[in-house]
Amino acid sequence: MQCPDCSSTDISKNGKQRGKQNYLCKACRRQFIEIYDLPTGYPDEFKRECLKLYVNGMGFRAIERVKGVHHTTVITWVKQIGELLELSGNKNRASQCDLSSSSYAAVR
Predict the structure, then answer these.
(1) Which of 10, 21, 28, 47 is the most buried (most CB within 10 A)?
(2) At a CB cut-off of 8 Å and minimum separation 6, what does 36 contact?
(3) Residue 108 and residue 91: Cα distance in Å, rounded?
(4) In 10 A of CB 85, how many CB atoms?
């Protein structure tokens, strides 16, 4: 294992935090963990289902109750789709949307 800053292999264990082993580089004194997990977020299919419910007339809080996702999250998704549809000029095609891994793209 190497330090992510100085690439030194002179490291020692430095306790645990939230179930993950902490390490300390003896050369630069940087504390780090072995593996960093990226935040996963919601799957694209799940977002698509929630947006489809909204387009079909279901309210934000109703989607929250049915799907278990916070209503402000759904509002954020709707705003993001609205901005992309506005930029592409497809205001009437809100029900036809594709979700990519990090952003939304309107179907042309």
Answers:
(1) 47
(2) none
(3) 11
(4) 18
The token duo for 85 is 């549809």
Dist CA 20 CA 37 (whole Å): 11
pLDDT confidence band for 95 (50 / 70 / 90): very low
**pTM recorded for the entire structure:** 0.54
pLDDT at residue 99 is higher than 70: no
Encoded amino acid at 26, one letter? K
Q: What is the mean pLDDT of the chain?
A: 84
Nearest to 78 by CA among 56, 89, 90, 94: 94
The type of residue at 87 is L
